[in-house]
TrEMBL record:
GO biological process: mitochondrial tryptophanyl-tRNA aminoacylation
Name used for this protein in its record: tryptophan--tRNA ligase
InterPro entries found in the cross-reference section: aa-tRNA-synth_Ic (IPR002305), Rossmann-like_a/b/a_fold (IPR014729), Trp-tRNA-ligase (IPR002306), Trp-tRNA_synthetase (IPR050203)
Organism lineage: Eukaryota, Metazoa, Cnidaria, Hydrozoa, Hydroidolina
Compartments (UniProt record): Mitochondrion
Protein family (similarity comment): Belongs to the class-I aminoacyl-tRNA synthetase family.
Keyword set, alphabetical order: Aminoacyl-tRNA synthetase, ATP-binding, Ligase, Nucleotide-binding, Protein biosynthesis
Pfam family name, one: tRNA-synt_1b
Keyword hit for Magnesium: no
Organism: Clytia hemisphaerica
GO terms of molecular function: ATP binding; tryptophan-tRNA ligase activity
Length: 237
């Protein structure tokens, strides 16, 4: 945190969007979150970090802090982390398709949860915001809800977006077909994940073993990293 420039933290997109016009009344947790994220990444000397598009700026901050630390102490203690993005880096809200889908959104119908039942998925997609245009065209820039469903279906079925646009292009009231196909693809994709989750969550002994073993492994890596940092800082005993 002593290396993190306040000016750079103030430019973080999430800080500006979530604090809005109430920056003076916002809390330190929100402001310093990118620094804590960087600490989590660097503590385990992560080389690659899977993130959403909205987290890219935080990875850039982490890289800046890595370079600052390594240069200041003339040592390559921390590797320079790289971000990992999927082809569909950002999925938008089903209810407010100009905003990203978020698990913290108070509107449960705005998102698809991994544990949603088939019926819940179908209901959420049926209620997904689209528009009143009966036909699909290639000009989707202003049709945020339709574009979002196309993006979701494209990612789930590994189908090029232009192919999907051609598929639904000649169908009047195409959104019924698009929503039905998106629902089917989501159910097929998420059902094995949900089933595996239910198997794991019902086996408390197995779950506790995973948590304990993971904690021990993480502690070992963290202690080794902190030992390296202490040596560089001249703090080793």
């Amino acid at each position: 945190s002593c290396l993190a420039p306040i000016g750079q933290l103030k430019r973080m997109h999430q800080w500006k969007s979530k604090s809005g016009n109430e920056k003076e009344n916002s809390n330190l947790g929100l402001f310093s979150y990118p620094v804590l994220m960087a600490a989590d990444i660097l503590l385990y000397k992560s080389t690659h970090v899977p993130v959403g598009h909205d987290q890219l700026q935080h990875i850039e901050l982490t890289r800046d802090l890595t370079n600052l630390f390594n240069k200041r102490y003339n040592n390559d203690v921390f590797p320079l982390p790289e971000s990992i993005l999927t082809d569909t880096a950002r999925i938008m809200s089903l209810r407010k398709p100009q905003e990203k889908m978020s698990k913290s959104d108070k509107m449960v119908n705005s998102r698809i949860d991994l544990t949603d039942s088939d019926d819940t998925i179908a209901l959420k997609i049926r209620k997904a915001v689209t528009d009143s245009n009966s036909f699909l065209t290639h000009g989707l820039n202003e049709r945020h809800g339709v574009r979002n469903l196309i993006d979701i279906l494209s990612a789930l079925t590994d189908t090029d977006k232009s192919t999907l646009i051609e598929r639904y292009g000649g169908i009047e009231y195409f959104t019924r077909n698009l929503k039905s196909d998106t629902t089917d693809a989501l159910i097929e994709h998420l059902k094995p994940i949900r089933n595996r989750y239910e198997d794991i969550i019902s086996d408390r002994a197995y779950l506790n073993d995973i948590l304990r073993n993971g904690s021990e492994k993480a502690k070992e890596i963290a202690e080794e990293t902190m030992s390296d940092v202490h040596k560089v800082l001249g703090m080793s005993l």
